[in-house]
Amino acid sequence: MDESTLPQEANFDELGAISYTKGCYIGQETVARVHFRGHVNRFLRRLRFVTRPAPPKGGRAGGRDWKVIGDVEALLSRRDRGVALGM
């Protein structure tokens, strides 16, 4: 995640980490517009890999038809299985 990531893409909205009733802040209009009128096209998700080794950081994630559906942003290790965060 970086400064171009919207809070809704990182699931902050679902976690209750965004207030829509408190005062002004930088980016408030964009965040409110997404919440009340639209949706985001990307989400931060946990990925589990059944292959060993898991793709390295900066790799690509694909669906069943091998179409690229996202990027692997950070790789973690959990008992010999690949677990990563992807956007």
Folded structure, characterized:
Helices cover 11% and strands 29% of the residues. The chain has 1 helix and 4 strands. The chain is elongated. The chain has a 4-stranded antiparallel β-sheet, with no helix packed on it. The model has no long low-confidence stretch (mean pLDDT 76). The chain has one helix at 28-37, and strands spanning 45-49, 60-62, 68-78, 81-86. The protein is of the alpha+beta class and 87 residues long. The N and C termini lie close together (9 Å).
Topology:
Elements: H1 28-37, E1 45-49, E2 60-62, E3 68-78, E4 81-86
Antiparallel strand pairs: 1-4, 2-3, 3-4
Structural class: alpha+beta
Overall mean pLDDT: 76
Report the radius of gyration as a whole number of Å: 16 Å
Distance between the termini: 9 Å
Low-confidence segments, given as residue ranges, are none
How much beta, percentage-wise? 25-35%
Please give the number of β-strands. Answer: 4
Percentage of residues assigned to helices:
10-25%
Report the principal-axis shape.
elongated
Strand-and-helix sequence, N→C?
HEEEE
Characterize the largest beta sheet: strand count, sense, and whether it forms a barrel: 4 strands, antiparallel
- What is the strand arrangement across the widest sheet? 1-4-3-2
